[in-house]
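**Sequence, structure tokens**
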Amino acid sequence: TDYAKIKEDATVSEHAKIIIRDLRNAAALEIYIATGDSKWHDIFLADTVFTHKRVAIYDYNVHDQRQAAYRYARLDASMVNEDIQKNCCQAIVLEANTCLRFIENNAFNVCYERDPGQPIVCGYVSAPQGSYLAQAYVLTGADKFKTGLQKAAAYSAGANPMNKTFMVGLGYDYPRDAFKIDARITGQDMPIGTLI
């Protein structure tokens, strides 16, 4: 197959191979969900990192299976490998607990989902992060995750030293001149609800 050739191709960087593997993994899971064809489940299982307990959901330059973890965790028990599903749930809860610790250890309850692809200085305060908190709440029902998500959203909603929101049209002091190339070129106002 083309995938087998890519894995052996010396001209394809290791980083690219990781990305291809993880996107293939997520795609196989989605096709399995849509069709119920176990062939796609087998492809997912062949490359999932969740065969191990307490594995990180994302490890830069090693794997990125964030999308697949939650999708698999939510599948009906009749469609899954029980151990893999438990490991997916555990990985999400571990990340959510890391987010809670980050929230509790800064002055404004800002949440940061570890992602070297998005440095801490680029957008993490203006666009609230909390997908792991939301996922962990759905999976466990634990109120601590819902509370953490509410705290994480508060900074960009105005609970910050500037008393300014980071969403166009929200609150009395919101961004009025945010840079959005489409709005600038067409001479239109920024769409209400745009996060900067």
